[in-house]
Structure formats: structure tokens, C-alpha cells
Amino acid sequence: MRFVEEIVVEEFLPTFRSMLAESLRERGLTQSEVAALLGISQSAVSKYVHGDVERNERLLDHRGMTELVERLAEGLADGEMSPVQALVEAEVFVRELEHGGLLAALHEEAVPELAEYGGEFAVHDPDSTLRAAERTLSSVRQGLRVLENTSGFATLIPAVGSNLVQALPDGTAIEDVAAVPGRLLDVKGRTTIPAEPEYGVSEHVAGVLLAARAAGSDALAALNVGYDPELVEALEAAGHTAVEFDAETDVEAAIDEALAGSPDADVIYQTGGVGVEPVIYLLGEDAVAVAERARDLL
């Protein structure tokens, strides 16, 4: 009796780690940096990089394996992917290979009796809530990088600050929305990001996004910028649909009413009120998309 996990440890893991270590080193990372990212020792990295481990040739030639390694190496090297997300992506790939893929074939070769069952031998369910959560955080990080590197974005930040938020695909509560703690601020003309994105740290912008989704919008992300009628005109000229809501009434009810006739609107705004600063909210499929739209306004 041989478990598929043994195939993973003996065949997949050495091949995967050596390929990833090589790819990271090719991107200029030191052995210590690679070791830290992979959670292994520098001596182990040295063995992987110098080919002192036995690798499975069929896995080495597997197109999906090569694409995964390149995607993870690129994300880890430029900081757009966390080690946790990389782990989740690798875990999901392993489950896919176990579900009728190459690992299932290797397992069947090691345990011929499995062939008697026919079809696909599914060992694990590849769906993962953690995977969605990490991908959402990664999207916000990438969007923040776009804003940070956009010259002049600070001029769009309202007095109350901006925030870039993205909800989980099935998110319905503030705890399901990733955002920046403390909001983005204009500090001497530069966009300042006070901390890494987290879940449940935005009430206002996240609340607007959730209200829009409850009203029928498909948007998963939002970014608020200072209101200017010329910005609204520019967005409409670029093909976006803008609707206005009343800032002095209940926000959820006001957004629901505003979107009633235009559920596909991807720009919602309010022109202010007593103690309320006028603001534009850009809605989109993900944080990167709305960040790039803000960049295009400049």
C-alpha cells in the first residue's frame, strides 16, 4: 500500500523545489533570500540549484509545472505574491495533478490495483477559501503599487484619504473586504501607504462597495478619489457609466436607488453635503483595474 502523498514527497517536492529555487536564483535572489521564501535551509537551496537532488523527468517536462514555477518565481521575486499565496497555488496544483493528472498516473503505476476503479481517482478537493483570500490580497497589493508609482495620484486623494478595497468573490460583510489600514494619504505631494492590506479594516469605502454589490453591481473592487465634475466628464468620455447618489441620506438606500436604473454603472459619486466631502468611487472587477483607471485620469 502506497499513498499518493508519498509520491508527492518523493517525486513532486524535490522536482518542484529545485525548479523554483533555480528560477528565483535566475531572477537575482541570493541563496539566503531563496531559503527564506521557501522555508528551507541555505544548504538545501544549494543542493537544489546545483542539481544534487533526483528529479522526476516527467514532472520537469510537464507544461503546467513549468508555468506554475515561472508564475510563482515572478510573483515572489517582485513581491506581488506572498509565500502563503505561493504555497496555496502549489497545493492547488498538486491536488489537480492528483485528480486525474500526472501524480494520479504515477500513483496508479505504483499501485496498479487503482486502475481497476477506472476514471479519475480524486484524492482531494482543490477548492480553497484561503486561495481566494490570498489572491484578493495580492490584487490589492498590485493595485497599490500602481497608485504608488503613478505620478500625481496624490492630487486625487480627498481630504479624508483614499482607500483601495477588494471583496472576496462571495463577500457580503466588511470582514470579507481587503483594504489598507488607515487609508492612503497625500504627504507632501506623495502617495503614502501606511501598511499592508488586511481584511476588515475599511468601513467607508468597503461599505460603499458592498452597498453597490447589494444593489446589483458585479464590482469586486473600489477606489475613492476627490470629486471634480471634470473627472466625471472624463470618465464618461472614456466609456464609463456614472451615477450620482445623495450623500446626506442613508448610504445603502441612496446607492440602491442610484443603481436601480443603471446596475452596470462603474462610477458612483456624491457632490457633498453638510459635513460630507464630495467623493467619486471607481468600481471595477479587481483592485488593479480600478487603480489603472485612476492612473489614466492623470
TrEMBL record:
Alphabetized GO MF terms: DNA binding
Domain HTH cro/C1-type, residue spans: 20-51
Pfam families noted in UniProt: HTH_3, ThiN
Database matches in PROSITE patterns: HTH_CROC1 (PS50943)
CDD domains according to UniProt: HTH_XRE
Domain of life: Archaea
PANTHER family in alphabetical order: HTH CRO_C1-TYPE DOMAIN-CONTAINING PROTEIN, TRANSCRIPTIONAL REGULATOR PROTEIN-LIKE PROTEIN
Record-given protein name: Helix-turn-helix domain-containing protein
Organism: Haloarcula limicola
